[in-house]
Amino acid sequence: MKSSIRILSFDLVGTLIHPEYVDSFWEEEIPKQLARERGISFEKAREYALAEYQKIGDNDVRWYLPAFWTKKFGLLTSPITILETSANKMCYYPDTLEALAPLHDRYQMIIASGAPIEIIEFVIRPIASYFHRIFSTVSSLGYVKKTEDFYSHICRELGSKCESILHIGDDKILDFELSRRAGFNSYYLDRKCDDPLGYDTIRNLVELRNKLL
Ligand SMILES: [Mg+2]
């Protein structure tokens, strides 16, 4: 497989960065801003925001879009500014930087994520030069989740053979299986060590680097 791979496709949340940052954007930073701008308590703002998220629900693509929510809540502050205020909470896994730098010298790399484009672009800022393209299910295609078609779209956009792309992600279905169904190669990143270690399972990105270089 190794010799036929030209492009590495990475999931973002749970793969390159800890999920806590994205969770806290929705559950803490947006409510904090809402509390500040409306002059209400954080607890009240949080309760209100979470209830409003619930009303839209995660089957609706708007649920995933920061700009939809800042507008809906009438916030004067942009999503990017809110992301910036909590940038200190953003955290790459230690193996991310260690593995990506040498892989970048050898492979073209892309992001294929279910996060909205504003969040992706913000969190990869320090390593943006590593990535040739970014694909977001919600922002590029208006899909609420990764599908086989999302991966086929990536393939067409890159003008590459699907088998020359290796996708790596921490969701067994959405990353590992669906990309495979579209014809990609894939590795399941099992950071929690839930599965026995198989050929297609890795525990961290240094293992990926070791397999590929
Ligand atoms: Mg993930």
Report on this structure.
This protein is α/β, with parallel strands linked by helices and 213 residues long. It has two domains: 139 residues, HAD superfamily/HAD-like (Rossmann fold), CATH 3.40.50; 69 residues. It is built from ten helices and six strands. The chain has a six-stranded parallel β-sheet, sandwiched between helices. α1 packs across α2, α5 packs parallel to α10 and α8 crosses α9. The mean pLDDT is 95. The site of magnesium ion (MG) has 7 residues, from loops.
Mean pLDDT across every amino acid position: 95
Give the ligands present: magnesium ion
Q: Would you identify the CATH architecture of the largest domain? A: 3-Layer(aba) Sandwich
Order of helices and strands: EHHHHHEHEHHEHEEH
Largest sheet, strands/sense/barrel: 6 strands, parallel
The geometry reads as elongated
Q: In the CATH hierarchy, what is the class of the largest domain?
A: Alpha Beta
Indicate the proportion of strand residues.
5-15%
**Regions with little confidence, pLDDT below 50 for 5+ residues:** none
State the strand order across the main sheet: 3-2-1-4-5-6
Task: Tell me the count of domains.
Answer: 2
Q: How many distinct beta strands? A: 6
User: CATH homologous superfamily of the largest domain - what is it?
Assistant: HAD superfamily/HAD-like
Number of H- or I-type helical stretches: 10
Q: Helicity range of the residues?
A: 40-55%
Q: Determine the structural class based on helices, strands and strand pairing.
A: alpha/beta
Alpha carbon gyration radius: 18 Å
